[in-house]
Task: structure prediction
Amino acid sequence: MGLGKVSFFPAHESAMAEDCASEFESVAFPHAAGLLRYALRLAGEKTRAEDLVQETLLLAWRNFHQFERGTNCRAWLFRILTNVHYKRLRQSGQHPELHVEEQEHALAAPEKVSASQEMREAFARLTSEHRQVLHLAVIEGFEIREIAELLQVPQGTVMSRLSRARASLRTALQARTMAAEGNL
Amino acid sequence: MNCDTVYNLLPLHLSGELPGEERAALELHLRECAPCAAMVRAESDLDNALRTAMLEETPDVSAVLGCVHARIAAPWWKRLPRLTVVRAASVAAVLALAMFASIALPRLYVHQSERNMALAAASDHYQDLVLQRHPDWERKPEDVARFLQTQFPQRKNLLSSITPEGAALEKVRLCNLRGTEYAHFVFKTGDVETSIFLLPTSASPEAHTPYQAAHLRNAEYGLDVAGFSSAGLTGIVVGGHDSVPAGQIADRLSTTL
Result:
């Protein structure tokens, strides 16, 4: 017997599943680049970030029947990714916080780099909490309300975190500039 | 509106969420207060610079999407996570299953990576042969010869070496299994189709997954998958479990290739 549909499932089940998979891919896959960018910020490493996005999409696929059509799929996916990341952190007993003060040695010998590179380096030296909130607001363009839902914190907390994150980023940029000037 | 209020509302203003009335009041304040206007401009510039810097690097998601697609396109993959329920089954049942597996399936996949690769191969086989998603097959002898020359330049008699007994090559294409390109050969014996996936010799050495000849049988869905590796080639055999001796083919290829 050849490998026809008979040897797998009834044709109607196969067709329905295929339709559903196609629909899922059409609404979820366009957000994959943003998810991976966010995952890279959270996980800090490409393989773990890709793994995080893969688990997020598969989890979303398994729960796609719960997704309300017409609502914000992007926010839904980011929420799943955030939850998966936190769950993994809890399981591994990791603490993601790393403060600017703890990385002062990184300023020892700055090289001549582009403004964008300087910005990325300064951003990388923020605490994970600040990176996360800035990433969601500035890079991904989420609204304060959406970020509050994503992170399960009050909107006021998001606003104050954003203000502090911007101040920290500015401080980190200035510190790098001063170190570069002192190196001249 | 005073300067403190402007500072407090700044995040909402920068994200464009400030309601009309408050936005108007804030903009009025900015026209009259140079320090506040400078602060808002500086924060906005900072945001723009950050956005530009971060979006300069676009991550490549093709490998991730390929894996996810392979897992969800064939509907039975989505049931796999439910296998975790097995963990909650009684110890006796698990022990019985383990004993059965140790006796009846001595070469069952033990490594998750191997299992995932086998599932990806089975998924590709399913998509190609059942759903017929892929149109990019090489079928003509001259096209197949060119394909072999490109992907396996060091293997002169590869096709005859891998062709199952009594079968003939129907088609071949490059496919993506969990981010790695494999050559997917389809052979036919009457109505029976056998897929053989081979990692091209042109692939990087780190792409090789060190398989032992190992089998993954899923009787419920009618597939038998067997991975193998020889001195120079890595591959996976997929076929209907009641019609294709995938394990035997893999065993043969692991020693003859």
User: Anything to note?
Assistant: Chain A has two domains: 10-92, 100-183. Residues 24 and 64 of chain A are 7 Å apart (CA to CA).
